[in-house]
User: Fold this.
Amino acid sequence: MSVFRAYDIRGIAGSELTSGLAYRIGRAHARFTGAHTIVVGNDARLSSEELKQALCRGIVDEGSDVVDIGLCSSPMLYFAVAHFKHPAGVMVTASHNPAAYNGFKLTREHAIPIGEDSGMPEVERLANGSMEQSGFRGRIFKHELSAEYSQHILRGMKLPKLKVVVDAANAMGSLEAQHLRRPGVSIVPLHFELDGRFPHHEANPLEPKNMRDLQDAVVRENADLGIAFDGDADRAGFVDERGDIVSSDFTAALIAEKLLKNQPGEKVLYDVRASRAFPEHVRKHGGVPLMCRVGHAFIKRQMRQEDALFAGELSGHYYFRDHYYTESSVMAALHIMSLLKGKKKSELVKPLRKYFQSGELNATVRDANGIIGRMEKKYARGSKISHLDGLRVDYADWWFNVRKSNTEPLLRLNVEAKTRREMERRRDELLAAMRR
Assistant:
């Protein structure tokens, strides 16, 4: 499988993703964008520094300058590109993948992502092509942006007195968590030491097993909230004061409610897997909910097209217009913390727990398109059909979405219904159809 993916470049460091390939990607990115300056940052994986150095050599050999912002999160990289009006950027990270992996997230101006339908095939073609020497060599500059970034993140934030447990998973969340240390806020740190081996657990809050340390600590510390960051801190998972994991669509609905108080009538995006409770909550609080495709490149594009205020993704990405239409897990955390004045997160979430959800289920298949076509034919009668992302079928009392994985021979299924019994019946029925 190619390391050039739908949304980024990713593979096993040292075998699939080598220094030589990193050099060629640096040259290809500079050539594709035509950027005179490219911002580069990296996470703390063991292979990141070596890959970054090779990438930067490629960029300067192509004649472009590098602004090296050093160790950072992906949201910090996006901020550096957009805020300082640089024409391109590269984040060296494999996000939530295990320690053996690494990769690159490529952006154009305004931190617009480069993906499968916005230039990634061309970057791949250039990286695999001839590499004649450019007539000019660029230079490498260092930029420490912590002061400007902190001012941007904390603008207008007011927090009550809280005790919050933060699990950084030995990754870049330890940098973002510094912005949560506000007057009256007590932070209980878990796994803040940077260690690219991820010795305690993988930096992926979507996996329940990776949330156990956080859940236990919230209960043990009698804390108000738990926050877990992924490897490059562009995603966050939340735990309420009882130690229960809160679904990301519910967290996003609460953030949308807060933002809409001061900006009613604005558009808010949610992905095709989100609970019906999300658009219902947005409408209740004066917003305009719009469904979108799964994946950061698609969401960012639709946000710009619609000039949306905010977007929430079931994977734990939270996108803000005020953060240049990109993710900011720490802004999401600050907004949730600001809502806890005299209230508990479990109480805030309780009105959203109106339906029963299957969670995302996967089935390995051979003929994904054929299966989706047969499912549409079977369930079309009396339903509302959407092809925005795979197939979504809505009935009055239940719905499902089935879509192809971008990276594996899998179909991904989400089901929601008004009763647990109906959800489980439909879930089993649909899974059986997929696996046949």
Notes: The two ends are 26 Å apart (CA to CA). The CA atoms of residues 363 and 432 lie 10 Å apart. DSSP finds 14 helices and 22 strands in the chain.
